[in-house]
């Protein structure tokens, strides 16, 4: 099974995510029995697994090399954040809550703010450096509901709870501190990142209803196309021609996370004026997760092959 997953771009994530999505679609109550099972095999484990991987990966962030990490991954994420704020504000003010082409301002904000850290981890594990893997912790900041909440609240001139953002940062800060105070601790925790990837894939997949995703139809596909057009070209050009890097990291941060599927419903509780659009937005996001989770690793692998970017030696 492991050898099969390694043959697929991002397979350590995609295979368990797809199996989990099948379970969530056809037997959604199977593991909802409370206790440890529900925490381990359903979306209830999302915050824990992401926090754990952020902590483990951030122990790799050597403060002596932090300048390089911030120069590359940090600047790319800042560019993505700036695009999210600017485009969401523009979309909301041009089209209002109802949006355009069946895509509401809620769906647009949740989609463009999404970043699938497990796709990032899978691609960086295959093609990146140790510093790239250490930067995984930075991607976790964008995974919590706090980021789309912040973007949407500014785009719609609403209030925001800053504690949610602080909560997303603490596991990363702790990992950096422990890893730099004791490098032996970094050696202990950092190897856990790759083995935890299939578990993260399973938990993300448990949020996806494949039937609902398909039912979103053309609007879900249009949202995905809009996501790629909004995010990929500018970030790719920045990485290649400003940072002078190979471009693989752009693929890593251009995929919609399964954890984002429930975000429209979460935001609808805080912003009642868009509650009517939440069910459709949820289905559209699910479609975006499926498309980008398959397409991004596939295109990234073709890109790496074409540009002769060597694949790292896989773990035995």
TrEMBL record:
<keyword id="KW-0813">Transport</keyword>
<keyword id="KW-1003">Cell membrane</keyword>
<protein>
    <submittedName>
        <fullName>2-keto-3-deoxygluconate transporter</fullName>
    </submittedName>
</protein>
<feature type="transmembrane region" description="Helical">
    <location>
        <begin position="135"/>
        <end position="156"/>
    </location>
</feature>
<feature type="transmembrane region" description="Helical">
    <location>
        <begin position="218"/>
        <end position="238"/>
    </location>
</feature>
<dbReference type="GO" id="GO:0015649">
    <property type="term" value="F:2-keto-3-deoxygluconate:proton symporter activity"/>
</dbReference>
<feature type="transmembrane region" description="Helical">
    <location>
        <begin position="162"/>
        <end position="181"/>
    </location>
</feature>
<dbReference type="InterPro" id="IPR004684">
    <property type="entry name" value="2keto-3dGluconate_permease"/>
</dbReference>
<feature type="transmembrane region" description="Helical">
    <location>
        <begin position="48"/>
        <end position="65"/>
    </location>
</feature>
<keyword id="KW-0472">Membrane</keyword>
<keyword id="KW-0762">Sugar transport</keyword>
<feature type="transmembrane region" description="Helical">
    <location>
        <begin position="250"/>
        <end position="271"/>
    </location>
</feature>
<dbReference type="GO" id="GO:0016020">
    <property type="term" value="C:membrane"/>
</dbReference>
<feature type="transmembrane region" description="Helical">
    <location>
        <begin position="283"/>
        <end position="304"/>
    </location>
</feature>
<keyword id="KW-0812">Transmembrane</keyword>
<keyword id="KW-1133">Transmembrane helix</keyword>
<feature type="transmembrane region" description="Helical">
    <location>
        <begin position="77"/>
        <end position="95"/>
    </location>
</feature>
<dbReference type="Pfam" id="PF03812">
    <property type="entry name" value="KdgT"/>
</dbReference>
<comment type="similarity">
    <text>Belongs to the KdgT transporter family.</text>
</comment>
<feature type="transmembrane region" description="Helical">
    <location>
        <begin position="101"/>
        <end position="123"/>
    </location>
</feature>
<keyword id="KW-0769">Symport</keyword>
<feature type="transmembrane region" description="Helical">
    <location>
        <begin position="193"/>
        <end position="212"/>
    </location>
</feature>
